[in-house]
Automatic annotation (TrEMBL):
Organism expressing this protein natively: Alkalitalea saponilacus
The keyword Cytoplasm appears for this protein: yes
UniProt xrefs under SUPFAM superfamilies: P-loop containing nucleoside triphosphate hydrolases, TrpR-like
This protein's GO CC annotations: cytoplasm; plasma membrane
Protein name: Chromosomal replication initiator protein DnaA
Protein location: Cytoplasm
Principal localisation: cytoplasm
SMART domains on file: AAA, Bac_DnaA_C
Similarity comment text for this entry: Belongs to the DnaA family.
Keywords for the protein's UniProt record, in alphabetical order: ATP-binding, Cytoplasm, DNA replication, DNA-binding, Lipid-binding, Nucleotide-binding
Role: Plays an essential role in the initiation and regulation of chromosomal replication. ATP-DnaA binds to the origin of replication (oriC) to initiate formation of the DNA replication initiation complex once per cell cycle. Binds the DnaA box (a 9 base pair repeat at the origin) and separates the double-stranded (ds)DNA. Forms a right-handed helical filament on oriC DNA; dsDNA binds to the exterior of the filament while single-stranded (ss)DNA is stabiized in the filament's interior.
Ligand binding (ATP): 177, 179-181
Amino acid sequence: VWNICMDLVSKSIDPLAFQTWFEPIVPLRLEKDVLTIQVPSVYFYEIIEEQYIDHVRRALHDVIGNSAKLEYSVVMDKGQKRNHNPYTLNLPTANRADLRNRAVSPGSNNDQPAIKNPFVIPGIKKLNVDPQLNADYTFENFVEGDCNRLARSASQAVAKNPGKTAFNPLFIYGNSGLGKTHLAQAIGIDVKQSMPEKTVLYVSANKFQTQYTDSIRNNSLNDFLNFYQMIDVLIMDDIQEFAGKTGTQNTFFHIFNHLQQSGKQLILTSDQAPADLQGMEERLLSRFKWGLPADLQAPDFETRVDILKHKIRKDGINVSPEVVHYLASHINHNVRELEGALISLLFLSTINRDEISLETAKSVVDKLVRKSQRELSVDFIQKTVCKYYGLDPESLQSKTRKREIVQARQIAMYFSKNLTNSSLSAIGSKIGKKDHATVLHACKTITNLIETDRDFKSQIREIESQLKC
Ligand code: ADP
Ligand code: MG
């Protein structure tokens, strides 16, 4: 019976979704009209109920009849055998609100009090999760200024009451090097200090993406999902990296919902405000907008001085106020560069056994500024690519679909993405008025070509060396 139902369902939904959510299901029994299936986790149950129940219901009605009912059984714990006292969710209807209010009893063990919240599975042990935090990224080390006051205080509020403030998710955004990672981690460190029993996890969006694809490859998606469902405070860094990655976005969406519904705290960072994020599914964006978007601005002069002084004090080095002011007034983009200057300065003064003089400071700043002036522009990349292929630089802007021009455009997009800080949409609008999806597609195409075509690869190498000289 189950197999026939699954045949029907598989015809009506996306094959990947079917593989992910239905293949792991084990049919347990059919008694009268009640079909009991075993799902690997509560998460599966939620997904099926939320997204696929109509398909399942239709199939059950077709195969068993209109009085068909479905019950789920969730495996409690890896160590337990499948049929040994499974935690049964009685689920005659597909109505989640109804389900929430229903008292659910853990299997046959009737003398235990009924459990109100079906999403809490008794018997899962708390794992000891390494939170992946950098001990230096504390609130104390995060110097306050006008540029970060709101984000900093919202973060502190979240750290005091994770999951219980209106800031869920807390969405921290700002340009590179302005302290997003630092501030997000400070929340984690603070929570771990005051509430050691909480499971905190910092993960970059890229790492999450890799873990997710690995888990699909290794057939361990369940473990992956179960792991993320356990986290009390989840810090997801640089979520703009999810752009265009639909599978990862879907999975994150469900983890996000699950955690939020269970009162867990989410902290997200991004280089764009939620409204400006490209390549994200609308339903995910609308979730991001639920909480508080808190931005980090470039620090003003006063804050730059304060940050330098803080670092100098912390590292116990001796730098004159004159040098501090020189650095703070000449390096004004971001905090990472400010730190970089300080480190170079320190390095130079130790190898030359100098005290840190204004002269040394000037030479360091000179180098840094020259380096950032050299940063490539999208225009320069376009010109260089056209020159290499003997094309008119204007041709990339034309609407033509001539192969060589389409490819030159794609190459220019590829280099712009990899060698500049421009966003995908900015690159697209500069190169032939395309959108971010076209740029993403171009980058994929070129990456594939480089991997498969040796001639092409050496052309790209040559262009790259012309760009960099
Ligand atoms: P982002 O994640 O926004 O790119 P980071 O959090 O990595 O930036 O910050 C870059 C560096 O600047 C880090 O070493 C961080 O400690 C430092 N930093 C940023 N903002 C501050 C601040 N307000 N006070 C002290 N250090 C800061
Ligand atoms: Mg960062």
